[in-house]
């Protein structure tokens, strides 16, 4: 008889990456053999087995010191201004904003470990159940998702699979990583379910991943793959399973599991799956009174003035920001009382687009805040909003860009104007690459897309507020120094 246990220890050959074992929060099945799973008609067996892998992907994607954070703060969308001692953090986020980061910065090591921990978990499941075809297909595409983040962030990373022999692996080239991601998806996609499973990998999720991979192929490999990006996007768009939500913000609500637009989401839950704490990361200390929050926010992440001002006032997506006078839940005006000099604190709390300085004495209320995700009244620090890793609007915009870069302006206009119309903005009659770039910024703010877009559109090394022009090599993050110290076979990315 099968019995449930709450913890297991898995032996992992890649010791330098993950250590030898860890505990799982999800229940797993003890005593299950590959034959049990392969011969069972009960899908719950497979669901329980793969839950541990998905739990690693949910992890801390949307938290502080995460991939989300380094992507956003290194872009022109957000900054974390230093307010005296608050958010000094050893200068980490100042360096991230100014593109002067160091290989020793802990955020890179955290992001590296986040990806390779998931990869290690997936490899162990494949080793344990080598003949369960459907399970392995899904796990291999899920592993490709982690490598999609790794190729974008670090480029030249080790490819570690279930057949790796252990020891200290060397870097693979970015081209090799690209080929591995592509083959991992193409070799397994036809074994995936063709249904709208938002929190697990399916046939259409895999094609959405291919669309994102091919969209950036020229950056990753030097060879553009625009036609392939468009074709992969079309598979998703033409599936009939997804549609743009009539209410843009319903995709980011606390209870957004019924979104018709979200394709792949991380199912956060304040009680059972923590790790998404944007409510703490962006809101002012006194915003606790606005939303009756259980804990005081940290007063950190804010949008840059130029990015905020680039939105048309009539664009519904401009409501993705919290700007202007702030009030308590009962309608009382909030006042920020502080003994700090050289700021307007003590005046009524107002989020201003202008940030007076990045450091060291940014005003406590300077900068519009990230309001795209619903902050539920009375919520704790962990939010219950499912985080959309992939949305249909992103895939439509991929279609538009890929078509335009192939000279198919009519197809590009048809696609991009679907997204414009939902935002209550007038349709484009003509189109430029900058229009597409800007539209992606308006639509995908705070969804960890901007850094990748800036690199693809040649904007990444340009100067912006409190950032000078940066060196081209910084389009790749450094291989974390902690990993190089642990594994002498790793080679640092050029420039660092």
Brief summary:
The protein is mainly alpha-helical. It has helices spanning 15-18, 34-38, 43-58, 67-73, 92-98, 106-128, 133-153, 174-186, 203-215, 217-221, 226-237, 278-282, 287-291, 305-309, 392-405, 409-422, 433-444, 450-456, 481-486; strands spanning 3-5, 28-30, 78-79, 262-266, 302-303, 321-322, 324-325, 350-351, 369-370, 387-391.
Give your account of this protein's structure.
The structure is a single chain. This protein is mostly helical. A two-stranded antiparallel ribbon has the order 1-2. Strands 3-5 form a two-stranded antiparallel sheet. It has 19 helices and ten strands. The chain has helices at residues 15-18, 34-38, 43-58, 67-73, 92-98, 106-128, 133-153, 174-186, 203-215, 217-221, 226-237, 278-282, 287-291, 305-309, 392-405, 409-422, 433-444, 450-456, 481-486; strands spanning 3-5, 28-30, 78-79, 262-266, 302-303, 321-322, 324-325, 350-351, 369-370, 387-391. Mean pLDDT is 91; it is low at 1-28. The longest helix has 23 residues, at 106-128. The termini are far apart.
Per DSSP, the total helix count is 19
Distance from first to last alpha carbon: 55 Å
| Uncertain regions spanning at least 5 consecutive residues | 1-28
- Mean pLDDT equals 91
Return the string of H and E elements: EHEHHHEHHHHHHHEHHEHEEEEEHHHHH
How are the strands of the largest sheet arranged? 1-2
* Number of E-state strands: 10
Biggest sheet architecture: 2 strands, antiparallel
How much helicity do the residues have? 25-40%
Q: What would you report as the Rg, rounded to the nearest angstrom?
A: 23 Å
> Which range does the strand content fall in?
5-15%
Class from helix and strand fractions: mainly alpha
Q: Globular, elongated, flat, extended or rod-shaped: what is the shape?
A: globular
């Amino acid at each position: 008889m099968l019995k449930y246990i709450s913890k297991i220890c898995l032996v992992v050959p890649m010791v330098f990456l993950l250590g030898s074992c860890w505990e799982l929060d999800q229940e797993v099945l003890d005593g299950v053999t590959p034959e049990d799973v392969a011969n069972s008609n009960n899908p719950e067996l497979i669901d329980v087995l793969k839950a541990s892998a998905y739990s690693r992907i949910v992890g801390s994607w949307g938290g502080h010191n995460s991939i989300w954070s380094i992507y956003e703060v290194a872009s022109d969308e957000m900054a974390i201004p230093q307010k005296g001692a608050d958010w000094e953090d050893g200068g980490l986020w100042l360096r991230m904003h100014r593109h002067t980061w160091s290989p020793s910065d802990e955020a890179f090591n955290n992001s590296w470990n986040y990806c390779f921990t998931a990869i290690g978990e997936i490899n162990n499941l494949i080793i344990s159940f080598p003949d369960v075809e459907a399970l392995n297909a899904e796990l291999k595409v899920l592993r490709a998702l982690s490598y999609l983040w790794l190729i974008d962030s670090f480029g030249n990373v080790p490819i570690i699979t279930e057949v790796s022999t252990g020891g200290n692996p060397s870097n693979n080239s970015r081209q090799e990583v690209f080929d591995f991601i592509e083959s991992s998806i193409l070799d397994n996609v036809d074994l995936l379910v063709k249904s709208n499973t938002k929190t697990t990998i399916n046939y259409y999720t895999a094609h959405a991943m291919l669309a994102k991979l091919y969209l950036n192929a020229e950056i990753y490999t030097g060879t553009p793959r625009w036609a392939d990006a468009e074709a992969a996007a079309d598979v998703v768009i033409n599936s009939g399973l997804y549609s743009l939500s009539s209410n843009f913000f319903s995709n980011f609500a606390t209870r957004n599991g019924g979104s018709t637009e979200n394709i792949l989401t991380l199912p956060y839950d304040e009680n059972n799956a923590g790790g998404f704490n944007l409510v703490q990361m962006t809101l002012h200390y006194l915003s606790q009174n606005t939303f009756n929050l259980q804990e005081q926010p940290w007063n950190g992440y804010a949008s840059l003035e130029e990015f905020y001002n680039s939105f048309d006032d009539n664009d519904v997506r401009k409501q993705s920001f919290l700007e202007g006078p702030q009030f308590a839940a009962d309608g009382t005006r909030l006042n920020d009382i502080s003994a700090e000099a050289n700021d307007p604190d003590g005046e009524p709390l107002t989020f201003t687009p202008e940030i007076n300085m990045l450091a060291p004495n940014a005003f406590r209320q300077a900068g519009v805040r990230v309001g795209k995700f619903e902050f539920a009244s009375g919520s704790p620090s962990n939010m219950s909003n499912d985080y959309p890793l992939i949305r249909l609007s992103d895939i439509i915009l991929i279609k538009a860009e890929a078509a335009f870069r192939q000279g198919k302006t009519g197809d590009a206009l048809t696609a991009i104007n679907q997204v414009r119309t939902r935002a209550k903005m007038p349709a484009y009659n003509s189109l430029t690459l900058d229009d597409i770039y800007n539209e992606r910024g308006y639509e995908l703010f705070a969804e960890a897309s901007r850094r990748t877009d800036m690199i693809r559109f040649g904007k990444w090394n340009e100067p912006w507020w409190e950032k000078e022009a940066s060196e081209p090599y910084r389009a790749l993050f450094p291989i974390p120094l902690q990993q190089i110290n642990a594994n002498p076979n790793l080679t640092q990315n050029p420039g660092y």
